[in-house]
Amino acid sequence: MNSQVMASSLDYSIKNGQFSTSSGLIPKGCIAQLSTELNGDDVVASVFITRTSLRGCQNSNIPYWLDEASLTYTINQSLGNNQYKVSVCQNVEGNMRRFCDAILVKFVVKEYHCKDSIKSVLTLEKLGTW
Known about the structure:
Blueprint: E1 4-6, E2 13-15, E3 18-21, E4 24-25, H1 28-32, E5 46-48, E6 71-80, E7 83-91, E8 98-113, E9 118-129
Antiparallel strand pairs: 1-2, 2-3, 3-4, 5-9, 6-7, 7-8, 8-9
């Protein structure tokens, strides 16, 4: 991938092979939340990247429940229309040592309803696996 690719009119880009917004890099943990867990749990369909009425994943204190140092992700292919094939890997203990998931994701802006207003929030949705 190019060192920097701007993606349509949504506030994200790809810089040095990593997803970023105008606020900086999107933490690896935000992407990893969409992966199927090693135990087979596949329960997260979408992650708020930017701020809702509080913090989104990019601004959160803990973007992922595991140490982010154990995570990596690779943007394998852009499919157009803000969709990407992404590999997410996690170092694990034991003989397995590493667990990877191949997910199909899409950046989408959704309306988030606050008490007195509606905000446009950048989200990352899991569309499936590849």
